[in-house]
Amino acid sequence: MSGAASGSSDLPCVELFTDxxxxxxxxxxxxxxxxxxxxxxxxxxxxxGERSTTNNRMELMAAIEGLGAIRKPSVxxxxxxxxxxxxxxxxxxxxxxxxxxxxxxxxxxxxxxxxWQTLDxxxxxxxxxxxxxxxxxxxxxxxxxxxxxxxxxxxxx
Length: 157
Description:
The protein is α/β, with parallel strands linked by helices. The protein contains four helices and eight strands, in the order ββββαβαββαβα.
């Protein structure tokens, strides 16, 4: 869990489903998210892409764009099929920050540090609960995000 934990029971709860896609790695890529407010049933989708990128960057962009679309501090259940995103936020990021955004004994720069720093800033506004889902396993929202992300990358092919 991360972010604004104090008073989290008073915060609205939202579900955020994310996915990224890339055709080639690097190659044209797309990202997508679905935001759902369970109390009202309201949903919003977003997607976009880049001409030349990597799958990991698109997975991060999906989470960044989804969190950025949440207007007020919330309890966010973030669902991703990316171990890179889930483990990055739950296991790796604290150490990276302690080491000045480097990793390992050799202190190599963290890959995609620009996106990790943006994601870290965004998650500070919320209480984020991370959920890993297996990709392409008939998870309706993950499958929908995958279709949206693939559709978004097609504009760059």
